[in-house]
Structure formats: C-alpha cells, structure tokens
Amino acid sequence: xxxxxxxxxxxxxxxxxxxxxxxxxxxxxxxxxxxxxxxxxxxxxxxxxxxxxxxxxxxxxxxxxxxxxxxxxxxxxxxxxxxxxxxxxxxxxxxxxxxxxxxxxxxxxxxxxxxxxxxxxxxxxxxxxxxxxxxxxxxxxxxxxxxxxxxxxxxxxxxxxxxx
Length: 164
Ligand SMILES: Cc1cc2nc3c(=O)[nH]c(=O)nc-3n(C[C@H](O)[C@H](O)[C@H](O)COP(=O)(O)O)c2cc1C
Prior knowledge:
It is a single chain. This protein is an alpha+beta fold. Helix content is 18%, strand content 37%. It has 4 helices and 9 strands, in the order αββββαβαββββα. β1 and β2 form a beta hairpin. The chain is globular. The relative contact order is 0.24. The site of flavin mononucleotide (FMN) has 24 residues, from β2, β4, α2 and α4.
C-alpha cells in the first residue's frame, strides 16, 4: 500500500469526532474493561452494534472468547471514568476497585457512572487487523440520562494504557 495513501487515510479518518464508550466484560472471576472509540451501529432491524477491541488490551486478551459485552455511553462529565478505563490497564491496576459497578446480565459489570448502556450478546467476532470486531445483539438496555456524550476530541489527550 503506498505510504501517501496510508498517510492520507489517517488524516481523513483519524481525527473525526465521535462518541466514546467503555466496554466491559467478565472472564472467570475477573472484571475487564477499556475505553473504546471504534464502535458503531451496524443494523436497525435486527438491532446490531459493533465494537472493536485492540489485541494488545487486557480486556481483549482475557475476554477474547466472551459471549457478552457491556457497552456504556460515557457521559460528558465522566472524564475521570474515561481516564480510568482508557489510561490504565488491568495488567497493572484493578479498575473496578476504583469505581462503582454492579453485576449485570450474563455477569457483565455495569458501571454506575454510565447509566446509559446496553449488554450485547456476541453474534460474531472477526479479526479486523490490530483489533477484533465484535458484532453485538442487545439483550438488555438502559437509558436513564439525557446528558451529552464524552467524545473523542476530549479523549484523545488520554495516554492509552496500551498503545494501539
Ligand atoms: C481516545 C482513545 C480511543 C481508544 N479506542 C480504543 C478502541 O477502539 N478499542 C480498544 O480496544 N482500545 C481503545 N483504546 C485503548 C484502551 O482504552 C486502553 O489501552 C486501555 O488502557 C486498555 O485497558 P486494558 O488493558 O485493561 O484492556 C482507546 C484509548 C483512547 C485514549
């Protein structure tokens, strides 16, 4: 692939504004989660949503074969949670000891600080390059806040726990 094509591609798509999510999972007795920007609705009927997990992240390495993921819309005021889940890695800290959460459907941890969220059953997972894409079908959803979302242009100053 020509280098200028790659550079132009990154210039085109690398700074687009979009909402951020915190994706959570459970593997055995361990709770996992990371900040995710690569995420989008994929279908209306049936409802489908895709999230991408980096191969480097503990969340992916430990929960790769999970059957369910929690997808949290991050409220605009919750920069601390974005920093915790995007700037720290579960390889070094227990993120869930530093925030309020409860167990949700399929054992997926639900973050009290992100009341707009859904739990999705994994329909399929595909290798997308340096991330895997997970197609999710919602099995439970909650919308309890009208607050705007925390978006990429604020999140990009966070130093990721694992570089992509
Ligand atoms: C702006 C931004 C966007 C990110 N987007 C993603 C993403 O789409 N998918 C992903 O797996 N990690 C993404 N990350 C990186 C993880 O959130 C980060 O490396 C996290 O510390 C990994 O935690 P873990 O090792 O506990 O899973 C992003 C981080 C930032 C700051």
